[in-house]
Write a structure and sequence with these properties.
Blueprint lengths: L10 E3 L6 E5 L5 E7 L7 E4 L8 E6 L8 E4 L6 E4 L7 E2 L12 E4 L12 E7 L6 E7 L8 E3 L4 E8 L7 E4 L12 E2 L14 E4 L2 E4 L4 H4 L3 E8 L14
Length: 245
């Protein structure tokens, strides 16, 4: 995820109403945000450490094991939320105080899953589209083996998608299983199942995007999807030239 070998401890971020600890990637596409909910608990703004507003945020209450993983998606909107831990479609609730993230902070309500109860330890993973590194977006599936092409602008190494408009699993694919096209070794983020579909015609990972080659509802149902894609930057872990130092 390009955080660097030295990214082991966070820096204090005081941009929000509650201080956070942040580790952010140099490319500006990804940050890890942790905080301890204050006493009294309640709605907060939290610094995310990126230079632009995150388009996708995944949160988990580390103290309360029974909580779900709320997901903010720019494409779904600030009045709705999803759960990484369930198949549910996007639902309406003021999880994000009905307010979109800014270039410095994101918003959470007093909900125990998004902000935590008093003294709960919380974690958030924030993603932002950066050319050649990461892409957050949306597409519409067609339920056909000749599915849509999703232009990422880079060769993907990781691709996660979820129907936002209907009940379905969160599917995850990568370029290591089976390490050739079509890539079919999928996992579901919301389930503990072993991998499935190895060797089936699921998707092609191409030089600039993803071509859907399945009728599978988890990735190409006739519905709206959100996705997160990370680039294949090669085995040496270096950034593309425009981001390298």
């Amino acid at each position: 995820w390009l955080l660097g070998d030295s990214a082991t401890t966070g820096s204090t971020n005081s941009d929000g109403s509650l201080n956070t600890s942040v580790i952010a990637a140099d490319a500006g596409h990804f940050s890890i945000v942790s905080w301890t909910m204050s006493d009294p608990a309640g709605a907060k703004t939290l610094g995310h450490g990126l230079t632009a507003a995150p388009e996708l945020i995944i949160i988990k209450n580390r103290t309360d094991a029974g909580t779900n993983w709320p997901v903010y998606s720019e494409d779904v909107g600030n009045t709705k939320y999803m759960y990484l831990s369930t198949t549910a479609a996007a639902a309406t609730f003021n999880m994000w105080q009905n307010t979109s993230p800014t270039s410095t902070v994101f918003y959470v309500s007093s909900n125990n899953e998004a902000s935590g109860s008093a003294n709960d330890e919380m974690i958030a993973y924030c993603f932002k589209s950066i050319p050649g590194v990461c892409k957050v977006g949306t597409y519409t599936g067609n339920g056909d083996p000749n599915g849509p092409y999703i232009d990422l602008g880079f060769k993907p190494a990781f691709f996660m998608a979820k129907q936002s408009s209907a009940v379905e699993n969160w599917v995850m694919l990568d370029n290591q299983r089976p390490n050739y096209n079509p890539t079919g070794g999928y996992l579901f983020a919301n389930l503990n199942n072993v991998e499935g579909g190895l060797g089936s015609e699921y998707v092609d990972f191409l030089s600039s995007g993803v071509k859907l080659r399945t009728t599978g509802a988890s990735v190409n149902g006739s519905a709206s999807f959100i996705y997160l894609a990370m680039a294949d930057i090669g085995g040496n872990g270096t950034l593309p030239p425009i981001y390298g130092k």
